[in-house]
Amino acid sequence: MGGMDMSGDMTNDDACEETGIARHGAMDDRPLRILVVDDSRLQRRILMSSLQGLSFELAEAGDAEEALAYCRETLPDIVLSDWMMPGMTGIELCGAVRELSAAQYVYFIVLTSKSEKGELAHALREGADDFLSKPVSAEELLGRIAAGRRLLDVERQLTEKNRLVTETLEKMRALHAALDRDLIEARKLQMSLVPRTTVRHQAGTVSFLLQPSGHVGGDLVGSFPTGPSRIGVFSLDVSGHGIASALLTARLSSWLTGNTPDQNIALRWDGPEIAMRPPHEICEKMNDMFIAEIDTVHYFTMAIGEIDLQTGRGQMCQAGHPHPLIQRADGEIDFIGEGGMPIGLINSAEFQTFEFDLAPGDRLLLYSDGLTECPTDDGVMLEEEGLAEFMRRYRHEVGDRLLHALKWELSALVNDADLPDDLSGLLVEYAGSSPSPDLTSPEEHS
């Protein structure tokens, strides 16, 4: 084994400064831990003495087994190991150290008198990071250690960043799980705003469908009694979908809930009796309240109306909502309404009320644009023509069965994927006049 070349006037302090090795603190504010492995005590002493005074934490081992025993207790940052040693060679020691240090990288420098390129390449392939040819100069040794330190600094930084990323991902998973639980509860609360069963009375039935595209959505449908033989119905759709739209929907629901004027802004006192406001007045009132009370970029569309269950006469206002559909008893389809602007866009907006008639066996469908704007396989929206075709196909289905058939048709259009928009519908099936229609409030069926 060759001796270390200690020639030259460079001191350890000079070498430290020239090679960039700091005399204080390593990557993690502790001295760099270096293990020297050589079966020659003299060679170990020479290497150790050249590293003294540089704030390294030094250790030595006389063979590979002793080195492994040390590594199992305290993992070094850098190993300086002779290649040729009795028993396990330095290259074999490198592989064993790699198995011990899966969570922390150890920079491994092989000391050798070999000079053949093939053998040196073999050492690198087996896991060594660098090698020094004997005799070793102090300047070169410190330079290789400085190079190792730079690599270890990068490795430690990446490890720390990975740790922070992992911790952040775990926190995000926990937050996502908590948010998911909250959204599930929010979905239950939103679904409770819509009656879960058909509202039945002697003059016909009112059925409901609500299917958010995510956990929660911005659609809402509902009905409420407006007199001894009249019923109010509405369908609304807040722009967008998701949490913000759902919160606005809940707020709007509170404006249309209840059977008295102090609970429901659609109602008013007509002497001692309760009556429904004209539909256009309801839209105008909601427009003024929405703009005055809610600071948001959202708006909503709505169709709201009243049906006299004795005569089948109805009146409605369409505020930017899809055209209501009437399917006659013979299966023919009429789309009614005059369009109108959405609610919440401009102050003092004006809306129009229009009238319609239902004959026995007719049915009225209010729905959101999640139905007519659902894309088909070729990317074309279903539109009113597609909805009319569905209604003709299922003309003999009634109530919930019809609404769910429409939902199944849309699911088939998107290959059972999530619907791209919230879906809602309200179906009034008019059976004809009754001497004493028995209206049931939605609260009794929710």
Automatic annotation (TrEMBL):
One of its GO terms (biological process) is phosphorelay signal transduction system. Residues 33-149 form the Response regulatory domain. The modification 4-aspartylphosphate is found at D82. SMART domains: PP2C_SIG, REC. InterPro entries: Bact_Sigma-Reg, CheY-like_superfamily, PPM-type-like_dom_sf, PPM-type_phosphatase-like_dom, Sig_transdc_resp-reg_receiver. Keywords: Hydrolase, Phosphoprotein. GO terms for molecular function: phosphatase activity. The keyword Cytoplasm does not apply. This is Sigma-B regulation protein RsbU (Phosphoserine phosphatase). It comes from Palleronia aestuarii.
